[in-house]
Amino acid sequence: MTDRYPPSSPPSGELQANERPQAARIEALIDDLAHRGFSYQTRFFDASLIDALIAELDALYEEDALSAAGIGRLGEHQLATRVRGDAIRWLDRISPAQRAYLDLLDGLREAINRALFIGLFEFEAHFARYPPGAFYKRHLDSFQGRANRVISTVTYLNRHWPVDGGGEMVLFEPVAAGPDGFDPEAPAREVGRVRPEAGTFVCFLSDSVPHEVLPTRLPRASIAGWFRRNASMGGVIDPSR
Ligand SMILES: O=C(O)CCC(=O)C(=O)O
Ligand SMILES: [Fe+2]
Question: Region Disordered: which residues (predicted)?
Fold first, then answer.
């Protein structure tokens, strides 16, 4: 499991995956984030890295190394199963593929900080696997006032996702109100719908863009991650999970 992604460059044919150079992809992403609050692009990552991450999540699943996801920091698991049905594993830099992925996201973090003066401090991410029938109801990833998750990211790991595969991520018009103003049941205008195709990357403002995962028909693999602000206060380090 640990050494499937060679640290050397992938064969040049696989680099064709992205038509736009990386700098242009990052520039487009930052522009979207600043103006709309969200961004998504297909084939954002090199195919070889995506393949290595897919193989790693497959192996973790086979080894029974994923655990049921919670909601909130205390992991209220009973409530959680009615809201989300995925199983997760946090990335910990254990493999070349994880290190490559986290290094790329760290570069993105620095680019966003330079362009938008946000002061993103760190990145945390987990693999997620939704079994058939699973979903994640409409939610925000952080709440204003205690918003240490600033920008959410999702990278999809499903090759050849069929049009009727379900499992799309739906993005809704940003809300300004924070915890009291956000009602997950209220009507909301859809602003984007993303198929979880391998290599597609989505990011959005964690405290203002409601989103949901529609029920999936097939097993659905991804990496969800968050750029965080350092929210430690009074010498108490804010726990990340
Ligand atoms: O997998 C996705 O498309 C979104 C997952 C999500 O919203 C989350 O993990 O908070
Ligand atoms: Fe989310």
Answer: 1-20
Is 0.95 exceeded by the ipTM? yes
Atom of ligand 1 nearest to the CA of 212: 7
Range of the domain at 99: 16-228
- Whole-number Å distance, alpha carbon 12 to ligand 2 midpoint, is 34
Q: How far is the CA of 98 from the centre of ligand 2 (A)?
A: 21
Q: In this predicted model, what pLDDT tens digit does every residue of 91-120 receive, in sequence order?
A: 999 999 999 999 999 999 999 999 998 888
Question: How far, in Å, are 54, 161, 237 from residue 220 at the CA level?
Answer: 11, 9, 34
Output the pTM of the full model: 0.86
Task: Please report whether residue 112 resides in a domain.
Answer: yes
160 dihedral zone (left: phi>0; alpha: psi -120 to 50; beta):
left
User: How do beta strands 136-139 and 211-213 pair?
Assistant: antiparallel
Query: What CATH number did the domain enclosing 151 receive?
Result: 2.60.120.620
209 within a domain of the structure (yes/no): yes
